[in-house]
User: Fold this.
Amino acid sequence: METNKLEQRWQFAEAMRSGQWSLSELCARFGISRTTGYKWLSRIVDDGTFASYGDRSRAPAHCPHRTPPAVEQRLLELRAHYGWGAKKLLQVLARRQPTLALPARSTVNAILDRHGKLHKHRRRPRWQHPGAGGVRTTGPNQVWPADFKGQFKLQNGQYCYPLTVTDHYSRKLLTCRALTSTRSAATIDAFRTLFRAAGLPDAIRTDNGAPFASRAVRGLTALSVWWLQLGILHQRIHPGSPQENGQHERMHRDMKREATRPPAATHQGQQRKLDHFRRRFNNERPHDALGARSRASAGHRRHASIPNACAPPNIRGISMCARSAAPAPSDSNSTNRFSVPRSATKSSASKKSAMASGTSSTIRRCSPSSMNAPAK
Assistant:
């Protein structure tokens, strides 16, 4: 028969009253220490009622540093009269009663909150990260991983920010630009030059750093909005998960060893070193996934070229597309045809691996009509 703690304490007291067992025997029978047994024995002497065997409050009977009730009442009266915050209430009270021991500002806020006198502001909802799943490509120009290699200082004291873009299918390093910053304007110029040379990809896969993502709606930036205008899907990996772009990060390790140690004296010299690394990486180095062939031998087909001008983006239309970018898990492959199916991934106990195996990883492509339609 199941019993609760209160009933077991009552049975202990009844057995003690019967006088048939000693205190040590009862403590061993009920699985408690002698100290606990003496505590319940004192409850029998003091009260003896069933309610006395319940848990009592462990709060101290007296708190020496508690704010006096008269000070609390005075603070509440000033709050009701002026409606000010804790800082100004303390200043007014200190001016009127200089000899009064006043509490800290945080204590005043706790007093006002305890009496329901604080008006808490609603927090802005944080947009949920869309996540990024595994990638499966069947041809060039489907998914381009892109990233900024960590900045490093040149011999002239200036910083260099290498922008790298590869093709997921052919493993080819498409561009490697030595930029002076990670600002959107310079990055857009670099991508515009790349698009005109290699065509437009179906998707670009990046991390969550600048200028690829921000704290705006769904992490949109000037760069990602421009990609959406061109019909390019933007995939963002999970924060703190560079392994989801591991193929690209592996290339960064080779580039760091061969092209940045030691660094060049100027940006022009560093660009020459990066160009030399790119030619050797694409034309000479074999790759196991390509059957020990070079990346240049895998070929690279050209998609539609970049238009000369794009219509100004309709922010409301793009935001609507971005807000509806988180479909159900069963619809993930219909939104992102480059995601690995759920059945083709390994099971994992971690939430991050589960999300990476089948969750939609993109902000959906916005149709021209939805982006350029006038906002109502």
Q: What stands out?
A: Confidence is low (pLDDT under 50) at residues 322-335, 341-376. The domain at 143-372 is CATH 3.30.420.10 (Nucleotidyltransferase; domain 5). The beta strands are 143-148, 152-153, 159-166, 173-179, 203-206, 233-236, 286-287, 293-294, 362-363. The chain has three domains: 5-53, 80-114, 143-372.
